[in-house]
Design a protein that fits this description.
six-stranded parallel sheet; binds nicotinamide-adenine-dinucleotide; three-stranded antiparallel sheet; 20% strand
Length: 239
């Protein structure tokens, strides 16, 4: 087997990696995100229909990040893997929380946006956001100032960084998917892309995901236990 230090590794994470930190997933709650239907809080149509609810929902999610939520061993393990691999490593996350960054990850792309960011509906510029926003919030980039919305890629919208992700998948020797149900596209299609370009593909999840059979290998269990062990073995192969 080729030495790991010569390998390019792409990791995809989903809500499952943050579950043990206390952030709810969708699939483990009957398709509800913190008691809300996706159709009511995570689509452009929901925002048009009931902007107050959508603003409130993301204000609550943002506040949660400033409560007692902490990264768990799986987040720290990925930061450690990045340290070992440097620019051969890329973390792509569907998560909108900031737990990867808080664990030390730097080479990270948030394909579905970030809770700690706002988006100007007119200029499409993005801003750091830590407090609440509502229907009266306005940007600082336009004259006159324009409405802003949560910088979240809703269902039906085009995820961020697709070109960079596609390029990384084409060059990947190993693709690891962690804590994602394989329901949400295009992320759910990355394993096939990685397989097509010849990568070794591995799933680490609580249970087989929707597209679990597309992976060449899998380990099942809680991310906080499985991921640190898996990463330690991988790093041992580096040396
Ligand atoms: P999902 O909710 O559809 O699936 C979660 C997956 O994680 C499931 O397969 C489940 O079996 C697995 N899982 C649950 N607990 C786990 C654990 N302790 N260890 C390992 N795996 C575990 O999540 P998704 O596939 O990421 O898609 C949901 C979408 O919702 C994403 O687009 C994301 O942006 C958004 N979302 C984000 C957050 C967050 O940022 N933390 C939370 C909820 C939803």
């Amino acid at each position: 087997m080729q030495k790991m230090q010569k390998k390019n590794i792409v990791v995809l994470t989903g809500a499952g990696i943050s579950a043990e930190s206390g952030l709810g997933t969708f699939r483990d709650n009957n398709g509800l995100w913190e008691k809300h239907r996706v159709e009511d809080v995570a689509t452009p149509e929901a925002f048009e229909r009931n902007p107050e609810l959508v603003y409130r929902f993301y204000n609550e999610r943002r506040k949660q990040l400033f409560s007692d939520i902490e990264p768990n061993p799986a987040h720290y393990a990925l930061a450690k893997l990045e340290q070992a691999l440097g620019e051969r490593f890329l973390l792509v996350t569907q998560n909108v929380d900031n737990l990867h960054e808080r664990a030390g990850s730097k080479r990270i792309l948030h394909m579905h946006g970030e809770l700690l960011s706002a988006f100007c509906c007119y200029s499409e510029k993005r801003f750091v956001l830590t407090g609440d926003i509502d229907v009266n919030s306005r940007c600082e980039c336009c004259t006159p100032a324009q409405p802003v919305r949560p910088d979240i890629v809703w269902f039906g919208e085009m995820p961020y960084h697709m070109e960079s992700i596609s390029k990384a998948l084409q060059q990947a020797d190993v693709f690891i998917s962690i804590g994602t149900s394989g329901n949400v596209y295009p992320a759910a299609g990355f394993v096939r892309e990685a397989n097509f370009y010849g990568a070794q593909t591995i799933e680490l999840n609580l249970e087989p995901s929707e597209n679990g059979t597309d992976f060449q290998a899998a380990e099942y269990g809680k991310a906080g236990e499985v991921v640190p062990r898996f990463v330690d073995n991988l790093i041992a192969e580096l040396n």
